[in-house]
Amino acid sequence: MKIPSDATPLSKKLLAISIVFLFSGIVVSPLVSSEIYIQENIKSAESRVQEQELDLLRGEHYLFVNAAEDISSFHIRYSFPPDYNYQVPIMLEILNDSTAEILHYEIENDTYEPNKVVDFTLGPLEKGSLVSLHFYYWVLVENNDYSDLPRYVKIPKRCELPEEIKPWLSSTDVVQANNILIKLKAHELKDHTTNLLVLAQRIVHYAKWHRFPFYCLQLALGTLKGQDALTTLFRNGDCPGRSHLSSAFFRTNGVPARVIMATPHYSFWFQMHFMTEFYCPGYGWILAEVHNAVVPYEAKNQIIMRICSPQDEDNTGHDYFFPKMTGVERWLWIDNDQVIPYYKDLKEGSKLNMFPEQSLLTDSVTAQFAFSLTEMVLMFYEQYLGSNLSGENLQYFQNAVTYQKQAILALKQSQEPEGYLSFMNRAYTEYEEISI
Asked: Which residues contact 159 (CB under 8 A, 6 or more apart)?
């Protein structure tokens, strides 16, 4: 598959309209007035080729670790953005100011799809030494503003739900959907409504604002504690607690819901952010920014890092700043207990943030093509990154990665996607040449 690099905006519009014709099954009869027929169908095709927003997002991560003892090489597994819903990763970029000795790294499937991790193999550390990893995640987003979301969706019955969705109805260590107190509050929030979207608004509003002054006091004093749903019901909580509480309320009312780890854009650096997704029959998963009481929440506002499974909820850790703040799902794993993540004040030490780099409008067919092409290039990139390539194969891989970087730069510098598509097509062509 190749994209002409000299395609103009007009030619791409004609291409988009042609594709719509192709899949619409249009048959032109010689007995019909061709001029009127074609004009009518061009208008119909143009109406179906809607504008679509594409966004380029850059996640920036600093991870510092120190050694409590002399250690040999070790592994750090760090969450990598999944190819999921409205986002697709373009590539990982490790910056030259990283001080850790990186022996090897590759992107791997996590236990629970579609989650991914980067597996870093790092060199030996002496006791007391502090080293860093500094890297970018580049992500393309085909934004969803939820303008097509119906105003009324009936709260589903369990028998109406797909089997693969039902695990997110379960009660877990931090989402205690079966607790009687949570059940009472969940039913109170539902009241007599049968509209899932009304219920969602009530849940996120309550999770954010209940006992809010007490939450502010805890945050100021540094006394935040357990982030499980039940504790959050009594004390309010930070973003993990609010995500757990809202998920419990949804599940108690028969709506699958799950915790999402994400990196939004803030004016400050942070550790990790937690959000909630709930399942909407006939539509799919809808993202809610519970921490700010906003639902639904547009895809372009964050990079999704991990979709938490019920098993994640049963295997939580503690916050890196507040030692008594437990019940927090993990986004990094180190295979040596003597290597400790170093967090200081989110100015120095480990931290992360997301930065929107570009936002543009194009036709929906071009946007979908850009998304699909990025997925195909990502498949090759993940396959060959960290592989033992040599000779021509190594050269093809290096050429492809260079084109991916050029594609990112082209998208940053233009309101048109043609340059991005051209360079990503070249990357795809280089990857196809690799023979193992």
From this structure: none
The strands making up 74-80's β-sheet, listed across from edge to edge, are 102-109, 116-122, 74-80, 332-334
Q: Helices 9-24 and 364-384 sit at what angle, rounded to 10 degrees?
A: 90
Question: Which class for 191: exposed (0-12), middle (13-18), buried (19 or more C-beta within 10 A)?
Answer: exposed
Q: Is 2.60.40.2250 the CATH number for 54-143+332-356?
A: yes
- The pLDDT tens digits of the residues spanning 228-265 come to 999 999 999 999 999 999 999 999 999 999 999 999 99
Residue spans in the chain of domains classed CATH 3.10.620.30: 158-297
Cross-strand pairs, 125: 71
Question: Which residues have C-beta within 8 Å of that of residue 70, sequence separation ≥ 6?
Answer: 124, 125, 126, 127
Sign (positive or negative) of CA dihedral 259, 261, 262, 266: positive
| Encoded tokens for 340 | 């400790």
- Report how far residue 388's alpha carbon sits from residue 386's, in angstroms, rounded to the nearest whole number: 7
Q: How far is CA 377 from CA 336, 397, 429, in A?
A: 34, 11, 9
Residue range 158-297 forms a domain whose CATH class is alpha beta
